[in-house]
Amino acid sequence: MSLYSSCTSAASSAGSSVSSTTKTSEIDCLLAGAGYRVRSSDLRHVAQRLERLDAAMVNSPAEVSQLASDVVHYNPSDIASWVDSLLSEFNQTASLPSDLPELPELVVGPVLNQTVLAEDAWTDHDAPQHQQLNNQFPVMTAMEEDSGIRLVHVLLTCAESVQRGDLAFAGSLIEDMQSLLARVNTSCGIGKVAGYFIDALSLRIFTPQGVGFGGGVGLDAAYENEVLYHHFYEACPYLKFAHFTANQAILEAFDGHDCVHVVDFNLMHGLQWPALIQALALRPGGPPALRLTGIGPPSPDGRDSLREVGLRLSELARSVNVLFSFRGVAASRLEDVKPWMLQVRPKEAVAVNSIMQLHRLLGSEPSRNSPMEMVLGWIRNLNPKIMTVIEQEANHNQPGFLDRFTEALYYYSTMFDSLEACTLQPEKALAEIYIQREICNVVCCEGSARVERHEPLAKWRVRLGQAGFRPLHLGSNAFKQASMLLTLFSAEGYCVEEKEGCLTLGWHSRPLIAASAWEALALPDANSPATAPGIFVNPHSNPPVNSL
Amino acid sequence: MVVPLNTWVLISNFKLAYNLLRRPDGTFNRHLAEFLDRKVPANATPVDGVFSFDVFINRSTSLLSRIYRPAHGEEPQINIADLEKPVTAEVVPVIIFFHGGSFAHSSANSTIYDTLCRRLVGICKAVVVSVNYRRAPENRYPCAYDDGWAALNWVNSRTWLQSKDSKVHIYLAGDSSGGNIVHHVALQAVESNIEVLGNILLNPMFGGEERTESEKRFDGKYFVTIRDRDWYWRAFLPEGEDRDHPACNPFGPKGKILEGIKFPKSLVVVAGLDLIQDWQLDYVKGLEKAGQKVKLLYLEKATIGFYLLPNNNHFYTVMDEISAFVDSNC
């Protein structure tokens, strides 16, 4: 049963696109407006199954508490599959239309003119979902101070002049902003981050183009970046969330496999892997043989930092009796990696792990044989059991400078706000520098120097769908564990949200980082028609493995 | 007795999900609740003439509200500095909205409530402030009321929300537990001399120790059971208190006297298939007996949640009434 119209359409989480394949059934648009996806033609059937589930719950109250505590829930927007998965817990046969109860008298079918309403409201709902790509505002404190408001005005005016090419005028505004900055509360919100944006604009205006900032140019920069990354990891939960969520999904994907191979697109200090190694060690039935291939930039002055990380992980693996081997692949850019370097073996289950790396492949213009297409192509050819993708949930790759600047201002102001809660030093200070470098790259750089080309989840869904991947849903267990992880942090503002099988971590109501998992659709052979992207079945037919 | 199919699916889905969340020991599966709840972010880009943004009412208690404003002109995008631009019309009603969920469920950013608040902006030409109050059982009485009170004070002190007469024209609105909060915040407002121009209570959540006729008649018939109502009161009320506590039963044996005080006029919407309707009707009678101005809108064939989807006549009736109610003063 196909549950999505072609996910190759842009933007929408309410399926607003018209599918390129012939689809006769549309999503009920009123339920879509409430956050749910049910095909209009399915409504009656779903209603009957809800009735059936209700009866089952009434008859076995003991099972209800088990449903709540033990069962993993997936993608609640899809009511049909949610109800069916719960019904299957009651050991009832999945579909026996003749057994389905009659709906209570009080229900009527769709209101007659609803289809007409649907057409109009369809486009209405198209708009809001599309707009979600842009302008997700940070939570603000009331900006009572005139200086704060004026500062933002000037920042945006300055960015707009830069976009117009009027660098002289833009330059004159820098001084104004610096004096305004002196009068603003710089301890939180916009005030805090404004200083960094003023600096970034300065650099862009007064320094010749083409100089890379925060792009990791040069070997020393790579080492420095590792240090900053580590402090960012400690100061706030974004990277831990990424690791945690990805590991959970990888663990589940590796269930039943004896030879597994993880390809990490950005090894750094390998902070993600001890937890996975330990979880695999504790797997019922024993651990698999684990290979880890870590990709990272070449090290300066003859050090082989990749190998050093590999050695440390080997020691850990040995101490918990997990057969482990490591391979480092040094590459300055992801597009320089060739699949043969990974030496994937035929019978092993492969997991590809990309934490904030894929966006670096986005060139300014889409073109044939773009790095993105090439890399996604070879990933797919590896036929991985899972690809975990964690990306910043932001639209920092818009062509217009002002749009990009504005979005970044809000995004990073929210991120800085969340950092306020951290009291660890020097972690916090260095984490701020880490973020500042990202800001610099987004604001100052162009062309190949601009690597921080973040795009929102909705765009990644489209891109990955088109490249032949389908989503593997992250469920309520991953959600719960991520939420519990967050309670370790004193700050109360972090929140995990579920969105159609993906999880986001944000500060208050603004998602900042999105985690998703994918598997490669079977490669079409010469004789069969191409499989349409977006068709999937519930992949989690096996009970989930014990969590980390 | 008619409920459109999609409404039925929506409310049944809630009912079943909520059954999973309430534990017999009185605790609540908050993680699963947050996982299942459908949410939507604020959006400063106007959609159908409305844009929204989130603010802190109180940073130290993390009390957030989502503000909805009508967009004027053809701005494709609202500048961050303009989010709190002063309102420009002669009179701008500001509706402080408290979402429902029986004190335990939902949030200001729940999709169903985001949709409802956007509609209120349109029909009332108002600014809507949707309060993300603390929920039970983790936060019992009086937390939700305290948060509502904080929101009222915050709204009342925003210069950018003042109409031309330099006053903020405040209305309180809410459904289910939100309706209950409206009453109690209004009471506090009166006692502190803050003027509230009107209360809008949609299927407000009230109760009492007694089992009324409607409770017995409709128990389990239209999505709601006496048992679940009891559970939510036990989760919200202070431990050891019964349902005649004034929070639950404002005109009961422990209720406050409302005679002679300048309580706001009220619009109370009661659904004829709601099992707690007798309590809601008692509330209306209580207001009348105390000499307070109240309009009852009784919708005989409506179930709970009828106002969540715009696919039935009751929905449009109620929206028209709300529009007239908020307009009549201005």
From TrEMBL, chain A:
Residues 350-441 are annotated as: PFYRE. Residues 444-519 are annotated as: SAW. GO terms for biological process: gibberellic acid mediated signaling pathway. Residues 308-340 are annotated as: Leucine repeat II (LRII). InterPro entries: DELLA_N_sf, TF_DELLA_N, TF_GRAS. Residues 28-94 form the Transcriptional factor DELLA N-terminal domain. The keyword Isomerase does not apply. Keywords: Gibberellin signaling pathway, Nucleus, Transcription, Transcription regulation, Ubl conjugation. GO terms for cellular component: nucleus. It holds the Pfam family DELLA. SMART domains: DELLA. The DELLA motif is required for its GA-induced degradation. Transcriptional regulator that acts as a repressor of the gibberellin (GA) signaling pathway. Probably acts by participating in large multiprotein complexes that repress transcription of GA-inducible genes. This is DELLA protein. The lineage of its organism: Eukaryota, Viridiplantae, Streptophyta, Embryophyta, Tracheophyta.
Automatic annotation (TrEMBL), chain B:
GO terms for biological process: floral organ morphogenesis; fruit morphogenesis; gibberellic acid mediated signaling pathway; positive regulation of gibberellic acid mediated signaling pathway; raffinose family oligosaccharide biosynthetic process. The keyword Transmembrane helix does not apply. Keywords: Gibberellin signaling pathway, Hydrolase, Nucleus, Receptor. It is found in: Nucleus. Its main location: nucleus. GO terms for cellular component: cytoplasm; nucleus. Residues 95-307 form the Alpha/beta hydrolase fold-3 domain. This is Alpha/beta hydrolase fold-3 domain-containing protein. It comes from Carya illinoinensis.
